[in-house]
Amino acid sequence: MAHHHDHTHVDWAEMGPLLESQAELFTPLYERALAWLGKEVTEPGLIVDAGSGPGVVSCLFAETFPGARVVAVDSSAPLLERARARAERQGVADRFGTLAGELPDVLDELDYPADLLWASRSLHHLGDQRAALAACAARLAPGGTLALMEGGLPARFLPRDIGIGRPGLQARIDVLEEDWFTRMRAELPGHVAEAEYWPGLLAAAGLKHTRTRSFLLDLPAPAPDRARAYVAASLSRTRETLADALDAEDRATLDRLLDPEDEASVHRRPDVFVLAAHTVHTAMRTI
Question: What is the pTM of this model?
Answer without folding.
Answer: 0.92
